[in-house]
Specification:
The complex is a heterodimer of chains A (111) and B (186). Chain A has a single domain (2-103), classed as Nitrile Hydratase, Chain A, CATH 3.90.330.10. Chain A is 30% helix and 18% strand. Chain A has 6 helices and 4 strands. In chain A, the strands form 2 sheets. Chain A has a two-stranded parallel sheet. Chain A has a two-stranded parallel ribbon with strand order 2-3. The chains are: A alpha/beta (111), B mainly alpha (186). Chains A and B meet through helix 2, helix 3 and strand 3 of A and helix 9 of B.
């Protein structure tokens, strides 16, 4: 498994265009949309529009990297630490992280 | 295989339908299909790439029409019959015939966790020296074997983008159980 880190300059997005490869041991079974034709077809050619449909608007100067995990390597996105979370410990951070943020279709927000 | 499953970069598939807090399984038969499929795979009846290949062999119209677990179910039925685990007649009636094949030892719940955690790796130790180093740019060759391959069409169509992944993935992402999809130097 390869962990790809989001930064203010780089946003990572995971897809499997050929089937539905996904980091089962960490995230469990994938949601239907991840396995669907619309996501698999468009994530590699139109990632910014796809992210917008998930409600994630990225600035134009943010580089989007799409990881097509179609074989034995699985990718997991390490999301950016949300602003204001500096004092949270590991357990508190684990409570706010989401599956979608580890696929790359969302950012982590504090409640 | 140059099939409908290789859909990266295609248009016209419609909107992405996001569902908040969706269930893992929508129907009991989906969970049963999942469990039976893993039981067959972990029992050595078929491996990961054979499983992928079986789905890729579906006619394109069926592939697009069927749900994820409908595809799994068709594959499960086909493999169970193909490997002699059940007969077509048993599948039809839902009842085992006298003297039908049994898994020995039978798969029981206590065995499952260890099998999933430790088994089902598709890794093979082969004595082939890697042709490329980690991080090296490569260009995918435009070849379309009829059998199973993990070479995506977008890597062929957009070669410069194909080079944007680390070499660590190179050996894993472009291979075939039937015929190798070769990659050539950049």
């Amino acid at each position: 498994m390869v962990v790809v880190e989001n930064t203010p300059e780089i946003h990572n997005l995971v897809v499997c265009t050929l089937c539905s490869c996904y980091p089962w041991p960490v995230l469990g079974l994938p949601p239907v949309w991840y396995k669907s034709a619309p996501y698999r077809s468009r994530a590699v050619i139109d990632p910014r529009v796809v992210l917008r449909e998930f409600g994630l608007e990225l600035a134009n100067d943010v580089e989007v990297r799409v990881w097509d995990s179609t074989a034995e390597v699985r990718y997991l996105v390490l999301p950016e630490r949300p602003a204001g979370s500096e004092r949270l410990n590991e357990e508190q951070l684990a409570a706010v992280i989401t599956r979608d943020s580890m696929i790359g279709v969302a950012k982590v927000k504090l409640p | 295989m140059n099939g409908i499953h290789d859909m990266g970069g295609m248009h016209g598939m419609g909107p992405i339908e996001y569902e908040k807090d969706e269930p893992v399984f929508y129907h009991d038969w989906e969970a049963r299909t999942y469990a039976l499929s893993l039981a067959l795979r972990l029992g050595g009846q078929f491996n990961l790439d054979a499983a992928r290949n079986a789905i890729e062999q579906l006619p394109p119209a069926d592939y697009l029409r069927m749900s994820y677990y409908e595809k799994w179910f068709i594959r499960l039925m086909n493999y169970a019959i193909l490997n002699g685990a059940v007969t077509a007649a048993e599948m039809e009636t839902g009842k085992p015939a006298p003297g039908s094949a049994r898994a020995i030892p039978g798969l029981v719940a206590d065995m499952v966790h260890g099998m999933i955690a430790g088994g089902a790796s598709a890794r093979h130790n082969v004595r082939i020296k890697p042709a490329f180093a980690a991080g090296q740019h490569v260009r995918a060759r435009n070849m379309n074997p009829a059998g199973h391959t993990r070479l995506q069409r977008w890597r062929v169509c957009f070669p410069r983008h194909a080079s944007a992944f680390p070499g660590r993935q190179t050996s894993a992402c472009v291979f075939s159980t039937v015929r190798c999809a070769r990659i050539v130097g950049w």
